[in-house]
Amino acid sequence: MKRISLIAMMLVIAFSLIACSKSADSNSTSNVENSTDQNEIAQTTESAEKSKFLSVGTAGTGGAYYPIGIAIADIITNDLDIPTSAKVTGGAAENNMLVDDNTVQLAITQGPMAYAAVNGTSPYTTQYENVLALFNGLSKGVLHVVVMNDSSINSFEDLKGKTIAMGPAGGGAINVTLDILSAYGLDLDDIKPTFLAYAEGVDALKDGNVDAAVIQSAAPASAITQLAASTKDFKIISIEEDKLEEVLKTFPYYSGIDIPHDMYGIESDATTVYLSNMVVVSGELSEDEVYNITKAIFENIDKIQQSHPAAKGLSIETAVERTPIPLHPGAEKYFKERGLLSE
Q1: Angle at CA 269, nearest 5°, toward 272 and 232?
Q2: 192-194 and 212-217 as β-strands: parallel, antiparallel, unpaired?
Q3: Which of 6, 73, 217, 303 has the least C-beta neighbours within 10 A?
């Protein structure tokens, strides 16, 4: 009887040991699975910090935005291993809308356009809260209004009733031109606008299909340089001194500038206006990613400077001066590290 009880007790102990072993195995497996899940979550979080690809909004191929955009895209692709491409767009005004809806993640625009987009003023009808600054002072966007030498157009006043290539729809050239025309008592209803990319507008001018072509670009503008390669029979319209004073007083974000005649090999200098161009970025990008993008760009600033003559004056010292809209936190972090912003 005692022997039977002893055997029973041993069986109970054996079953208990087996149960404990299975429980330990189960816990061990569970721990491995939990560890795997945590690793997967960590990997997913890590990959979320780095975009699969990025786009840089530029403008038409005939201006300065496009080659500068290519240089920015190449830096991001090569330094950060994020496939990035320059995208042809309607230009400065449209680029803010494209960044806001994340169609492009970075874009080149004009300071006044970025300010108008963030604040919801003309030409925008709503506030674009997803548009943030990456850096300012990229280049000077110079207004060129080009006509052929045999044209009767010698002043902005003479543009009344004329067919004008205003640059691409959505481009910043439209608003700048209308600002200048307002000093002459003219508006969009007083001209016959057509919306063509800069290179196409210059071709239309040369072929006699438009009376004037507007190019809002860093100087020298490649579309005009191409025109000058085939003919010097054109001129750039000047803003008269009194009208220039009125424009600068009414629109404080413009500055006056002289275009020397030898820049394009034409007969006369021209007086016009310019504004600063900048790079904006989507608020949907993480702080770390934008920090890395900003760092890569300014560690390779020579590539931007060499991409187009207009960008040769870009410097990190002026990149945050008079920035018209808030900086992305990632860009702000970088510029603070470089001592360009106070903590």
Answers
A1: 115
A2: unpaired
A3: 6
